[in-house]
From TrEMBL:
<keyword id="KW-0472">Membrane</keyword>
<dbReference type="Pfam" id="PF00005">
    <property type="entry name" value="ABC_tran"/>
</dbReference>
<dbReference type="InterPro" id="IPR050388">
    <property type="entry name" value="ABC_Ni/Peptide_Import"/>
</dbReference>
<keyword id="KW-0547">Nucleotide-binding</keyword>
<protein>
    <submittedName>
        <fullName>Peptide/nickel transport system ATP-binding protein</fullName>
    </submittedName>
</protein>
<dbReference type="InterPro" id="IPR003439">
    <property type="entry name" value="ABC_transporter-like_ATP-bd"/>
</dbReference>
<keyword id="KW-0067">ATP-binding</keyword>
<dbReference type="GO" id="GO:0005524">
    <property type="term" value="F:ATP binding"/>
</dbReference>
<feature type="domain" description="ABC transporter">
    <location>
        <begin position="9"/>
        <end position="259"/>
    </location>
</feature>
<dbReference type="InterPro" id="IPR027417">
    <property type="entry name" value="P-loop_NTPase"/>
</dbReference>
<keyword id="KW-1003">Cell membrane</keyword>
<dbReference type="InterPro" id="IPR003593">
    <property type="entry name" value="AAA+_ATPase"/>
</dbReference>
<keyword id="KW-0813">Transport</keyword>
<comment type="similarity">
    <text>Belongs to the ABC transporter superfamily.</text>
</comment>
<dbReference type="InterPro" id="IPR013563">
    <property type="entry name" value="Oligopep_ABC_C"/>
</dbReference>
<dbReference type="Pfam" id="PF08352">
    <property type="entry name" value="oligo_HPY"/>
</dbReference>
Amino acid sequence: MEKQSDLLLDIQHLHTAYRLQGNFYDAADDINLTLKRDEILAIVGESGSGKSTIASSIIGLYDHKNTRVTGDILYNELNLVGLNESLFNKIRGNNIGMIFQDPLASLNPLMKVGDQVAETLYYHTDMNEKQRVTRVIELFNQVGMPRPEEMYNMYPHELSGGLRQRVVIAMAIACKPEIIIADEPTTALDVTIQAQILDLLESIQKESHSGIILITHDLGVVAETADEVAVMYAGQIVEKADVKTIFEHPLHPYTRSLLNSMPQSDDEDEELHVIQGTVPSLKNMPRTGDRFAARIPWIPASAHEDEPKVHEVEPGHFVRCTCWQEFHFLDDDSNKEVVKNK
Ligand SMILES: Nc1ncnc2c1ncn2[C@@H]1O[C@H](COP(=O)(O)OP(=O)(O)OP(=O)(O)O)[C@@H](O)[C@H]1O
């Protein structure tokens, strides 16, 4: 049986709405998710599907005047929804580490990278200066920075993108957080460096027994690293299962379309299925019916539930709506485009 303490985060009925011209619109709509110790949970979906909205709701980094967060985000006994800022400041960095897409934006250009990591330790631990420097060198070693002592005194612009992201990761894990949220941590990096950073995240997770939420639009990244996967479309989770099930037995038409659009080879002329259309903007989001229906118009309206519910089709495998039962790809090439596979 699962130990109570294995559950790190329990997100229930999370709604995050942004104010646009006076009205609030849900960008995350009734999100239910759990994160366990020793688990990498990937949240995957196209741009605009609401992935980063979930991340910012968890860590409480949003414009409180124009963002409304309701529901529960339970971290142990604590509900992070509505938590006061001084408590949040203690939890951020200490219990929950954050890695963003663009390491340059996360770092202060005018400060030595070693001092930036040491600063996190200054705020969250009672280490003295010497201990902090020692710990930073240890962290730089852990994240695979060559010549850590030398690196300590460098400025962000003197480092490559991959090394900068290692600094950000060192900062995120400095206080051994139980939870790490990585929002597109490899998107800004070269392909070869991407794999190294993913390997690093995995080894950190194994060593520290933390839980990682990995936000990505890249199913290749998911296949390589995730244990559990939540597929998001237009603010909602449309499918959730373990990684093997998502790749070997996907059901929701959106998950199947995403998988179908993945390159199968390195051939630049490979024909890729492109999902026609885009995620609707917040204001244009249909608030009733199946939000994905518009992108699979060849599936009859009767296949969709009027108010799609999430069904547990097998233990641990959740799918929104029953339309998957009638879903098929088009036989002709009308939803297929030749796009450069790079
Ligand atoms: N602060 C904000 N104010 C208003 N609308 C916002 C705000 N942040 C995000 N949105 C909108 O909310 C929706 C979800 O955005 P979000 O960034 O969470 O998606 P995402 O899946 O992370 O996409 P991306 O990968 O492009 O960041 C989008 O329609 C976006 O335009």
